[in-house]
Amino acid sequence: MGITKKVTVLALGLGMVTLSACGSSDGDADGSGGASKTVTLVSHNSWAVSKDVVAAFEKQSGYKLKVLEDGDAGQAVNKAILTKDNPQGDVFFGVDNTLLSRALDNGLFQSYEAKGSDLILDEYRVDRDKHRVTPVDSGDVCVNYDKAWFAEHDLTPPKTLDDLVEPEYKDLLVVENASTSSPGLGFLLGTAAKYGDDGWADYWKKLRANGVKVVDGWEQAYNEEFSGSAGGKKAKADRPLVVSYASSPPAEVIYADPKPQTAPTGVAEGTCFRQVEYAGLLSNAKNPEGGKALLDFLIGKTFQDDMPLNMFVYPVREAAQVPEEFVKFGPQAKDPQTMDPARIAANRDQWVKSWTSLVLK
């Protein structure tokens, strides 16, 4: 959500491969003015889109789409900043609100107000005076729980952040490293938003005393440590609580065979932090016109309707279709923790440094 490691079939251990490229970089010039006929999107490795949607973009715009996936969100953003003078592509997708200030402060994007921006829900809009980024999707980082485990142990699942430090949940929670994982960072920011500058560190001391386990990334946490996921069941995982996404339960239903009537996992709604992902036209893009066409398409109805069941995130466009499974098994949190990007920018690095010292050492 970024909202970075999204819940994909890969996350469930069932072998879906996301689209890594479409079209070709061969023959980039047309016959008239040497303008590029390929537009290149740089993204984290959770990018996924239906082939017919790519075909619709290519037919509508006249450009071939090439996609370069470049690791997780933090890695992809950092590399894009380092290469901004000679960028890998034209558009970057996948910088979320936890890392947005880093991208903007380093001049990663140039200004462009995408066509259809007026249809983006107001709550997701930022940088309104310069239009350097366009909101594309949103998702909630939340603690997920294994319904069967809690039923078998006759224990009520936690509902809030406060619940997680209670003795009955000792040694049950696995989280991602806040310095290496987007959901890990999102969860840390959620605790900072909830408990404030003076309280978040004390909260993590309590979590540590209550046996929280920290692993490097989301895939390891969800697929190898969490007992409620399809991958975790295969790995004989023993932690029934994990930091993941509100969209994880519908993914467990959609990719199960046979499909269950109810999701095997649930969401502790009082633990959620809202992430928003953005795309932007890269500074020094070699094909800015193609990049503008792609940004227009990313917030168009065709892409926004297609996106939820490919990347397991919510659309940001008014009246975009939300899959029935999302509504039934993974609705957005009603009152998630949020944080202004400026506050994240001012505190993120120090919070992560303090968290690392407190929790990992």
Can you walk through the features of this model?
It is a single chain. It contains 14 helices and ten strands. It has helices at residues 51-61, 73-82, 100-105, 147-152, 182-195, 200-209, 218-225, 230-234, 248-254, 288-298, 301-306, 308-311, 324-329, 341-360; strands at residues 38-43, 64-69, 91-96, 109-110, 134-146, 173-176, 213-215, 241-245, 265-282, 314-315. Strands 1, 2, 3, 4, 5, 6, 7, 8, 9 and 10 form a ten-stranded mixed sheet that branches. The longest helix has 20 residues, at 341-360. The two termini are 28 Å apart. 51% of the residues are buried. Mean pLDDT is 90; it is low at 1-34.
- The Cα radius of gyration reads 20 Å
Mean pLDDT: 90
Q: What about the largest sheet?
A: 10 strands, mixed
| Approximate shape | globular
Strand content: 15-25%
Task: State the distance separating the first and last CA atoms.
Answer: 28 Å
List keywords for this structure.
361 residues; alpha/beta; 10-stranded mixed beta sheet; 14 helices; 10 strands; 18% strand; globular
How is the secondary structure organized here?
Layout: E1 38-43, H1 51-61, E2 64-69, H2 73-82, E3 91-96, H3 100-105, E4 109-110, E5 134-146, H4 147-152, E6 173-176, H5 182-195, H6 200-209, E7 213-215, H7 218-225, H8 230-234, E8 241-245, H9 248-254, E9 265-282, H10 288-298, H11 301-306, H12 308-311, E10 314-315, H13 324-329, H14 341-360
Parallel strand pairs: 1-2, 1-3, 6-7, 6-8
Antiparallel strand pairs: 3-9, 4-9, 5-8, 5-9, 5-10
